[in-house]
Write a structure and sequence with these properties.
The chain is of the alpha/beta class and about 240 residues long. It contains eight helices and twelve strands.
């Protein structure tokens, strides 16, 4: 797969497209529904990874909860790619980060389709580019990778016009994600990709037990949803 070689990872080039959280089992959808959030009711299955997921869409970002459906397939995928969803979904090991962060190029720097080779088998099967092999296997920190425009949220919104009206409209009123703070046990010793993202303000990464705090709409409502009540390391501030 051909992509632009980025001279650095910074907020002028990249922005967060979505974050996934590996969980032990399918999340309690009622918990989020009662808070006034709309979830896509149909789970997304990835048989080659041995996973399934539920998604909450927002106007500029989406949140994905990933769990294991097939342990054997997940183990094979981990051996083949280095991405171990099975290990990241185990709640009893607090040293492993359950998070993954997909980044897209901002619209003004997004390359033309001619700069991608979508005919390659890799582009068809994986459609992601890890920043480094070091980050790929560093399970103490969030997995971090770049996705092409073809599968980024802005393209999904263009391809599926009903997406915004059907799944991005929340009774609670949340619209845009405006801040990300991730805690990791390796917060003081990050691999270079995560260090660059942190230094340039794309995401704030601190030391501590694994948790992700997302801020929406600059927190004008002064509200909070704490999903740690249902054993998901997630806090939403709005």
């Amino acid at each position: 797969m051909k992509t632009l070689l980025l001279p650095s990872v910074n907020s002028s080039l990249l922005e967060v497209d979505h974050i996934f959280i590996c969980v032990e089992s399918a999340p309690e959808l009622d918990f989020f529904a009662k808070q006034g959030l709309t979830l896509a009711q149909t789970s997304v299955e990835q048989p080659e990874r041995g996973t399934a997921s539920h998604i909450i869409f927002f106007e500029n970002f989406y949140l994905e909860f990933v769990w294991i459906e097939d342990e054997v397939a997940a183990e094979i995928y981990a051996v083949r790619t280095g991405i171990d969803f099975l290990a990241r979904s185990r709640r009893y090991d607090r040293k492993i980060s359950p998070f993954g962060m997909a980044l897209r190029q901002q619209s003004r720097t997004r390359p033309s389709l001619d700069e991608y080779d979508f005919r390659s088998p890799l582009a068809e099967s994986e459609l992601l580019l890890s920043f480094s092999s070091e980050n790929l296997v560093a399970q103490t920190e969030p997995l971090c990778f770049v996705i092409p425009d073809a599968i980024a949220l802005p393209r999904l919104k263009r391809n599926f016009p009903n997406l915004q009206q059907q799944w991005m409209s929340h009774a609670l009123g949340l619209k845009k994600m405006t801040g990300i703070e991730i805690s990791a046990v390796s917060g003081d010793h990050l691999t270079q990709p995560l260090s660059l993202l942190s230094q340039d303000g794309v995401v704030q990464i601190e030391s501590g037990s694994p948790c992700v705090q997302l801020t929406f709409d600059n927190r004008v409502q002064r509200g909070i949803i704490d999903a740690r009540k249902i054993d998901i390391p997630l806090v939403l501030k709005f």
